[in-house]
Amino acid sequence: MFPTNPLIAPLALLALLPALTTSLILPNYTSIITSTAKPGILDVTIHTTNNTINLWNADFVANMKDLVSRLKDDNDTKVVVFRSDVPKYFIAHADLNFDLENPTLVTDSIQLIEDVANLRQTTIGLVSGVVRGGGNEFLVSLDMRFATKTHTFLGQPEVGIGFIPGLGGIQWLARLIGRGRAMEYILTGKDINANDAERIGWINKAFDTDVEMEGYVASLTSRLALFDLAAIGAGKHAVNVATKPAVEASLADGKVFVELFKDPAVAARTRLGTLNDNDGERFFGEVLPALYGAGPIPSRRR
């Protein structure tokens, strides 16, 4: 029997509005490229400005903050996939040219990573290249991580430069791979390849080729796109309660990072590279001891 009160039908329609929202509308960003071509799936391609290795910089953080704010209110997107279109790089590391007396890039980045982790949508990172420092701190906070075996190096080289990971990477990585392995990779700054990263839980799975990785992830995203966002979000929240570090711990690490960075010797070490695609950048985990005069930087084939 239908209600006779003329106000009930409009009120019932209002209650359905979240389910009837239109597709996510996004602006043209400067450091990320977005696509909503596949229903329920948002593809985000990282291509940051004014560099050739995808630096985590202020422009990228501003773009991502805007994107996350829109995703919080979006009820159509079920999964967000991050990848890079820069050959051999996902996100090389953070841009360390910031004002130490006003380190808002650090605190904004920590809050951005926290907000991404708390999204209802599933977040997935696809890596086929270098991801270190702030890039890896972002990657390990995503819900799932996949990588190809060719060109992929992951690492946190900060201690070898003279500071610590400042965006919460220590907190996330220790929960993923355990205390002993976190100590090994955080304190030595050495890289890990995709095979070993899969073995210890740094990433979900390693693949021989991009085609294989993309196909595997497509099967996951097409499945997730069928499910209710409320259920996905509730499942994520429950896992986060069990595993996500407190943002206060990440902010504390950020303060230590800034204080250690103020040492002139430390700041000088960050300016030895060209921030371009060269062997010193690509194989930085391997050549890190050279900052202390422990042999020349080895020549490596590209």
- Class of secondary structure makeup: alpha/beta
The SSE string, one letter per element, is: HEEEHEEEHEEHEEHHHEHEHHHHHH
- The helix fraction, in percent, is 40-55%
**Largest sheet data:** 6 strands, mixed
User: How many E strands?
Assistant: 12
Query: Regions with pLDDT < 50 over 5+ consecutive residues?
Result: 1-22, 298-302
Q: Report the span from N to C terminus.
A: 73 Å
Number of helices: 14
What is the overall pLDDT average? Answer: 89
Spatial order of the strands forming the largest sheet: 1-2-4-7-9-12
β-sheet strand percentage:
15-25%
- The Cα radius of gyration reads 21 Å
Spatial shape: globular
Explain what this protein looks like in three dimensions.
This protein has 302 residues and is α/β, with parallel strands linked by helices. The protein starts with 7 loop residues before the first helix and ends in a 15-residue tail after the last helix. Helix 3 (104-117) runs antiparallel to helix 11 (247-261). It is globular and about 55 Å long. It contains 14 helices and twelve strands. Mean pLDDT is 89; it is low at 1-22 and 298-302. It is 44% helix and 16% strand. It has helices spanning 8-15, 58-72, 104-117, 133-139, 158-161, 169-177, 179-188, 194-200, 210-224, 229-243, 247-261, 264-269, 279-282, 284-287, and strands spanning 32-35, 41-46, 55-56, 79-84, 88-91, 93-94, 122-127, 129-132, 144-148, 153-155, 192-193, 205-207. The strands form three sheets. A six-stranded mixed β-sheet has the order 1-2-4-7-9-12, with helices on both faces. It has a four-stranded mixed β-sheet with strand order 5-8-10-11. Strand 1 and strand 2 (41-46) form a beta hairpin.
